[in-house]
Structures are given as structure tokens and as C-alpha cells.
Amino acid sequence: MKRLSVLFLTLCILLTGCAGSYCETRAAFAMDTDILVTAYGSRFTVGGAIDRALAVLNEADTRLSAVDTGSELYRLNETGAAELSDATAALLARALTLADATGGAFDPTVYPCVQAWGFTSTDKRVPDADELLTLRAYGSYSDVTLDGNTAVLRAGMALDFGGIAKGYTADVMANALRDAGVTSAVISLGGNVRAVGSKPDGSPWRIGLRNPYSLDASFAVVQVMDCSVVTSGSYQRYFERDGVTYHHILDPSTGAPARTGLVSVTVIGSDGALADAYATALFVMGLDDALKFQKTQGDFEAVFVTENREIVATSGLAGVLSDISSDYTLRYAG
Amino acid sequence: MKRSTVIYIIVFAFMLIGCGILVLASDHNGSGATATVYLDGEIVAVVDLNTVTETWTLAVGGNTVEFSPGHVRMLDACCPDGLCVRQGYASVGKPVICLPNRVMLVISGPADTGVDAVAG
């Protein structure tokens, strides 16, 4: 009997060890970009969990697109007033709060300027400063009225969730995966990365940060768990005209591409919507103001790449940042 | 045979069956890498790269995908920027993506690039 008990115990231990990880990666196109979801777990649950995550992605894309004529946002921009769904109203409230926190460095009302530059179409152009200032004069984030679920814009204003929608959606997808029993996954919405839990072996995820000067390589790796890693880079969307490069990260104060000596800003934080909005805002602020801002907030870390090929990381990333490319020099701020 | 011994044997039998199910459920996708080719979000081809013994190509949405032993890349693309062609071979966590033609090459399998995803 004693021998049988020992065998029983051994079998129990073996059983625990059997619970390894099945891995599935699924790709899709949504939000005008490529989507990748990699999830680990049981073969019986992972596929269904990814299905749910992709379903919430498509639902969010349908609501939040600025160019899809059937979306809530499109309706608001066209009519200047609309009754929004609970989820869209909550995201708008969040966007306005984050815009306020950044002093308008992130501002979803810069959309008419985005359109003027042609970043929403294939016809790029260079609008003059007067045209951009006229478009900005229609109103900023503080001119958006949100009363319950009713949003009202001033005449000429238009909103774009491009600087927050992917971060927000990645969080919603992460929740869908968790609700379906997945505790280990990585979601990428066009390079906007959300890590769910840790790797199956309990170690942190290794997220590469794209090298702006060599797009098929990373300039560093961050090791994270349950975290968003979001980058805004001037290399991501741009066009050239008469020898000048114009990128898509517009400074809301001018409506023109922000030229602050930075080529990319990566924000690492537990809140995807915040990380997304702040990546844009910190790029617009420039290195010095961005570092001051980060110190006052404290709920995220950041990595900056300058035009001089210097990497500047906030002090909380010491020990988290590794695999630094030899093409760069690294310093920690603060 | 004692009654308790019979109960133990029955419990063992159930646990062995359970263990077998768990082993099946926790398949690691085999030892090698699998390339999945997507066009407009739909899977058009799944290739076990370990079974590729000679180079061959596949036309997908105006692009040409090249499979070679252990590797897959976008050999040619009809879009003007050709960014995907310059990305080289796809690897785990680093898919090759042609946004204009909505073609993606995604690798599943043991990580060989040292990263699980790339931000930016």
C-alpha cells in the first residue's frame, strides 16, 4: 500500500508538469495596420480566446475609425454632435483627460490638420502655416463638450483617436484574453505592444524597440510583464517633398510635424491608452520637457532616441533595458 | 485483492487518461517553425519550414513569397516602397508585413530572435 501511495504522489507531480504551453499566433488587418496575437495555454482554450480578442478588436475598429463612414466617430465629426456608446464616450473622456494632463501636447482635435497634410489619404501635400493655424483655431480639446454620452464639437472641429485607440484596444483585447482563461500572451497592433502576464515559464516578455535607422533591427530590448510598450516614431509615417521630410506626429500648437530633435519615443506603462497618448505627447514636448513631465507623473517609464543617436531612458528602466545596439550611446536621466 | 487497492488502480487509470489529454493539449507546435501566409487577414498557406528542402515561390496578392529550408521572405512586391522586401527573412516575433497589399508572413515556433515582439 505504501508503494502504491508513493506511485500516486509521483503521478500527481507528473500531472502538474504536463500542463505545458501550446502556442498560437494569429494575424489580422485592422485599424489601418497589421495585428498579431500570440497566446499560450491549453490547445482547447487558446484558439477561442484569440477569436474573442479579434472580435473585440473589430468591434472597437468599427466604432473608433475616423475614416469609416459607419463609425461613431465619423458621425460625430460629420454632424458636430452625437450620442455615443458607453465605451466610446468613456474613451473620449479618457482622451480629453490625457490631453489636459499633457497640456495639449496630445490633442485628438488636431485631426483637420492631419487631413490637410494628406496623412489619411494617398494625396500628400504641404499646407502653409496660415492654413494650419486657421484649422487649429476651430478649437482644441478644451472646446469638446461631453455631457453624459453626448459629445458636441465646435464648427469646423474634428476628432481622431489615432493617438490613443490602439493602446486602448490592446487593453480591451488583453482583458478578453484573460476572461477566456489566457494568462500568457503578447498583442501587437502595428508595433503597439501589450504583454499579458509573463511568458509561460514565468520570465518577463522581451520586447524589442525598433531601430529608427535600421527598421529590421531593434536598438534595445525591454523586459516586461503585464505592460504596454508603445512607440511614436517619425519614421513610422512620412513623405518627402522638395528634399524635406514631413512626418505624421503633428504638434497641436502649430499643426505641423513636431521637430524636437527626437526620432522615437517609447512609453512603457500598465495602461495602454495612457502609454499610447503619452508616446505622442512626449515626442511633441521634446526631450527636456518630456523628462520633466515624466518626473511629475511617475506612472510610466520612457525611452527616447535622439537625432544624434543617443538613447535616453528614465531611471526606472535601469536593469529592464538590455541588448543596446552598438550604434547608440545610452544614458539614464534623473 | 483489497478493496482499497482496486480504488487506487481505478484512480491511477483516470489520472493516466487525464495526463494523456494534457500532453496533447500542451503541444509545443513541434520542434520547428511554421510559416503562415496571410492575405487580407485570411490564411492562404501554412508551411512547416523544416520540411522545405529546396527553394520555391508563391504568388500572393501581387507579392512573391519565397520559401527556402528553414526560412521565408518576401522576394518581390508590386507596391512602390518595397519595405517588406527589405525586411529580409521573417522570424518569431518579427513578421514580414506588406501593408499596401495586406500580405503578412508570420512565424510560429521556438523564438530565435531573442524577442517576443517588436514595438515601433
Q: How would you sum up this structure, described in words?
A:
The complex is a heterodimer of chains A (334) and B (120). Chain A has helices spanning 2-18, 43-64, 72-79, 86-101, 111-117, 129-136, 165-179, 272-285, 287-297; strands at residues 22-30, 33-41, 81-83, 145-147, 150-152, 184-189, 192-197, 205-211, 214-224, 227-233, 238-241, 244-247, 262-269, 301-306, 310-314, 321-322, 329-333. With 334 residues, chain A is of the alpha+beta class. Chain A has a nine-stranded mixed sheet with strand order 1-2-6-7-10-13-14-15-17. A three-stranded antiparallel sheet of chain A has the order 3-5-4. In chain A, strands 8-9-16 form a three-stranded antiparallel sheet, with no helix packed on it. In chain A, helix 2 (43-64) runs antiparallel to helix 7 (165-179). The longest helix of chain A is centred in the N-terminal third of the chain and has 22 residues, at 43-64. Chain B has 120 residues and is an alpha+beta fold. Helices cover 22% and strands 36% of the residues of chain B. Chain B contains two helices and eight strands. Chain B has helices spanning 3-25, 83-86; strands at 34-39, 42-48, 56-60, 63-68, 71-77, 96-98, 103-108, 117-119. In chain B, strands 2-1-7-6 form a four-stranded antiparallel sheet. A three-stranded antiparallel sheet of chain B has the order 3-4-5. The interface between A and B is large, with 53 and 43 residues.
List keywords for this structure.
heterodimer, A: alpha+beta, nine-stranded mixed sheet, three-stranded antiparallel sheet, 9 helices, globular, B: 120 residues, alpha+beta, four-stranded antiparallel sheet, 2 helices, 8 strands
